[in-house]
Amino acid sequence: MTTTHPPIIDYEGSRYRTDFWEGRGREYEDLAERYALRRLLPPSGEVLIEAGAGFGRLADLYQGYRRVVLVDYSFSLLQEARQRWGDDPRFLFVAASLYDLPFTDHSAAALVMVRVMHHLHSPALALREIGRVLHTQGAFLLEYANKRHLKAILRYLAGRQAWSPFALPPYEFVRLNYDFHPAWMQAELRQAGFTVEQELAISHFRLPLFKRVASPQRLAALDALLSRPAAALKLSPSIMTRCRLSKPEGSASGLFRCPACAGVHLLAGPRGFTCADCAAQWPLIEGVYDFRLPVSRETAPTAS
Ligand SMILES: C[S@@+](CC[C@H](N)C(=O)[O-])C[C@H]1O[C@@H](n2cnc3c(N)ncnc32)[C@H](O)[C@@H]1O
Ligand SMILES: [Zn+2]
Predict the structure, then answer these.
(1) Ligand 1 geometric centre to CA of 52 (Å)
(2) Which of 55, 62, 174, 189 could form a disulfide with 194 if both were Cys (CB 3.0 to 4.6 A apart)?
(3) pLDDT tens profile 235-255
(4) Residue 258 within a domain
(5) How many domains does the chain have?
């Protein structure tokens, strides 16, 4: 449980699926992320949590997991996810903040977070929570936006961009939208107890010029070929990593815990959970467990 509640970007009611993905010329980016996830994600396991899962765009990649938990602060996006995946009994839909995950310690074999880190005001707090819920041998699949990509470097050197892609601190280009220096992110991960096992540099061809001359499938296949050797340079706008945690062995007691008091005695009822320790109510609304603590939500998303 965290005591501070950083602001969260507000995707409630957003048309993220149709405004950003479907028919928006981003098939290549979607494919590039899928190639990378397929490569890095352990193929099977007990519980997989996707943090900031949105409308469940990537959920078809989790076939090998016995329980798939899609978490997001946006209730409306989870409703869309539920429309797509609600018939599959392996899936759970959980509205919660990833700063206060409503899961017990050691509960997840894998945790995936794609296109979310770049919205986080407090990465260190989020990494601490993720480390808490991951199993000792658990895998953390993290995608983050790279500030030191080739286009930013060229623009900076040509004097067409004021901010330096070489400076370590995150660059907030729009409120609650950050790009990260790979060395800064690696240091944050280390600080939170993670070891970076593998890195892939992805989405090299995220430019209209490339998209005009080759199909998304071709670009994504070429990107996949490049992604491992190019990880040494990290000149792409997106980096996918697989991290492991160094922490003592432990076992989970159930899946859910109360995000208000961290108690693990949750009494299940037809309308949700009641915490036996602090009496907080966590309702089940239209198939979505609502474990959201009140936080300040800010700004409509502009870039994702
Ligand atoms: C750009 S979307 C990415 C969605 C999905 N991962 C994908 O790649 O299609 C970012 C998502 O992160 C969620 N998000 C941002 N900050 C969050 C937080 N602190 N806790 C939970 N969800 C958060 C947003 O609600 C939104 O659905
Ligand atoms: Zn409680």
Answers:
(1) 3
(2) 189
(3) 999 999 999 998 889 988 899
(4) no
(5) 1
**H helices, E strands: number in the chain:** 8, 15
pTM above 0.90, yes or no: yes
Ligand nearest to the CA of 282: 2
Task: Read off the amino acid at residue 72.
Answer: D
CATH of the domain at 91: 3.40.50.150
Provide residues with CB under 6 Å of ligand 1: 8-9, 11, 16, 52-54, 57, 72-74, 77, 97-99, 114-116, 119, 304
CA pair distance 158, 156, nearest whole angstrom: 5
* C-alpha of residue 257 to centroid of ligand 2, in Å: 8
State pLDDT tens for residues 213-242: 999 999 999 999 999 999 999 999 999 999
User: For residue 54, which atom of ligand 1 is closest to its CA?
Assistant: 27
Q: What angle do CA 186, 191, 193 make, to 5 degrees?
A: 100
